[in-house]
Design a protein that fits this description.
mainly alpha
Length: 206
């Protein structure tokens, strides 16, 4: 069997089945950290933090927060996916679900390669306000940046598709859509209480 880093892209169910049989490895937290860093870079485009910090400390903070967030998201998210999966008659153990979700993040972790190209081309300006970024970049650079952004978006979408397939495999769901519902339910379990809490705080403070 080829490396799971390659086979996960096109054969997610077969790959995660083999990974589950072999047991957890050190790859799981590494993939979680790399995927978390990629996600942190994605979110950094929507902030003005790079305008307020030196570039290297900004990157260091982004990598640290991303790595920590990736680990927390994987381990806490796996717990809630396992919990809500019981409502849908899912049969995967917490360890199996963690393996499935971690390895589905391989495309997201892969997006660090186009991110490296973007950082090399744009540097700090890439994370500053859009108007400033457009002013300092040439047409060729902008086209390259746009191409890299497309690869990043596709990688993120592919990770979601793989998450549905790998989760369906370990939960013994026939359909990836049922696994998607499992992910949505887990997300709501986390988000809804937070929204209610913040709403109550705003009402109380008003």
């Amino acid at each position: 069997m080829p490396s799971p880093y390659l086979s996960i892209w096109t054969s997610p169910r077969v790959t995660v089945r083999s990974l589950v049989q072999n047991g957890p490895t050190i790859d799981i937290p590494i993939i979680a950290c790399l995927g978390g860093v990629a996600g942190s870079l994605d979110r950094s485009l929507d902030t003005d933090l790079a305008d307020k910090m030196e570039f290297l400390p900004f990157l260091g903070l982004t990598f640290f927060v991303g790595s920590l967030g990736g680990l927390i998201t994987l381990y806490l998210g796996s717990f809630f996916v396992s919990f809500t999966g019981g409502w849908l008659k899912g049969r995967g153990s917490l360890e199996q679900i963690r393996t499935a979700l971690a390895w589905s993040s391989v495309p997201k972790a892969f997006s660090l390669f186009p991110w490296a190209v973007l950082i090399a081309l744009g540097g700090r300006e890439l994370f500053q306000s859009p108007d400033e970024t457009l002013e300092v970049m040439s047409i060729d650079t902008l086209l390259t940046v746009a191409s890299m952004m497309v690869i990043i978006v596709v990688s993120n979408i592919w990770s979601l598709i793989l998450a549905c397939q790998t989760l369906a495999e370990v939960q013994q769901f026939q359909s990836g859509w049922r696994a998607f519902l499992n992910l949505i339910a887990a997300g709501l379990i986390i988000v809804v209480p937070l929204v209610l809490l913040f709403s109550a705080i705003l009402i109380a403070s008003g």
